[in-house]
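Now read this:
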Amino acid sequence: MRIASFLPATIGLLVLAACQRPEVRTLGYVERFDPALDEIISSETLPEILGEGYEWSEGPLWVEEHKMLLFSDIPNNAIMKWTEEKGVELYLKPSGFTGSDFKGKEPGSNGLLLNADGQLVLCQHGDRRMAVMESSLTDPKPDFRTLVDRWEGKRINSPNDAVFDREGNLYFTDPPYGLPGNVNDPEKETPFQGVYKLKTDGTLILLTDTIPRPNGIGLSPDQRTLYVANSEGKDAHWSAYTIAGDSLTEARIFFSTPWKEGLKGAPDGLKVDSRGNIFATGPGGVWILNAQGKPLGRVFIPEATANCALSADGKYLFTTSDRYLLRVRLM
């Protein structure tokens, strides 16, 4: 879908201003492409800066039980924690590489999620695996158990993002971004970038190897559709697949956006709300799409936005945007 007509003339505007409270700083603004956006977010809303100074923030996860947001700082091999009371503080280090001599730039964890037992599950770049933290959420330690690190005996690349279905099966993407040499790394073992399904019995299924750079991933509320972002070059699009057991069918481009010079970011992380709306990070910030792939609006952020998370009550959207952590009030 081409939507150049939706893009406002003020695309380069940077809003970094005070809100109603003078201590609150903001970054960006909301663009309204369709009146239906008014049921999701007000066009008057401004993204609030919760923290800054990170090397590359990623993988935000809202933990309702502890009213905290966790997110990865990949180059620093760390997970940070934000709470309303204390702001941002270090939560866990190391988070993605537990060895002693990493040669690349992205050793840390990327996507974060919780399993059915409330344990932290991590996409680990440096250790090239999906893993679970064995310690409790309130007393985090770098004690990890491997969930999967090989496909047919070959080491996977560097898991990027993941989502559980209701039965506990784990879907995840595996681009080469965490490898020191990226796609040409001499230690790359799989000859493709895969999207996988790790079943509850431990079986790993390759769902597709046709996406050049699979990145963000999400499920529709009815669990029938899998969304995957492709972050390869200027081919900015998000694919949708119909889930048929352990296979994907009816592959189609769900949404694509015209590339525009000056916009930062590429299709990356995404989240799906309870109504089926998709919050997809990409060029210019966070695109808000309805279940049919129609763009309703965008949270324009002038920094490359890697991923996002929704609070349990659906009232807040959190974004990891390069060196920033932001919060956006929803309706």
Notes: The domain at 55-282+296-325 is CATH 2.120.10.30 (Neuraminidase). The radius of gyration is 19 Å.
